[in-house]
Amino acid sequence: MDYQEIIMGIIVHGGNARSNALSSIKKAKEGDFQEAERLIDDANEELSQAHRVQTDLIQAETRGEGSEITLLMVHAQDHLMNAMTVRDLAQEMIELYQNIKQEEV
């Protein structure tokens, strides 16, 4: 697998994680907390896959196998960090929606 394909893996998994996290917020808003949690689990799995790719790149660099820092790599890192932030906020919003639902009962 070439360097660009590896970087694209971070972007794809990060994008999938972000989409799952945003969908989980929608499901929580609708009151479907079981589906919201499943989507968060899916987001976590996507983030784990992206993080594994990132870790492999970091380990290669520590072995002296440095990689070129390109705009695509910066974009991939930005994509991953944004996905992690959206996932964290989604978890908080799910909890808030659950609390609101419990107070309504």
Automatic annotation (TrEMBL):
Coiled-coil positions: 26-53
Could you tell me the superkingdom of the organism this chain comes from? Bacteria
Residue list for modification Phosphohistidine: 75
Binding of Mg(2+) occurs at 78
Which UniProt key words apply to this protein?
Coiled coil, Cytoplasm, Magnesium, Metal-binding, Phosphotransferase system, Sugar transport, Transferase, Transport
Q: Which GO terms describe its biological process?
A: phosphoenolpyruvate-dependent sugar phosphotransferase system
Q: Return the cofactor note field.
A: Binds 1 Mg(2+) ion per trimer.
What cofactors are annotated for this protein? Answer: Mg(2+)
GO MF term list: metal ion binding; transferase activity
Cellular location(s)? Cytoplasm
| The protein's name | PTS system, cellobiose-specific IIA component
* First-listed, main subcellular location of the protein, grouped into a coarse class: cytoplasm
- InterPro entries listed in its UniProt record: PTS_IIA_lac/cel, PTS_IIA_lac/cel_sf
Q: Could you name the active-site residues? A: 75
Write down the Pfam families for this protein, in alphabetical order.
PTS_IIA
GO CC, sorted alphabetically, is:
cytoplasm
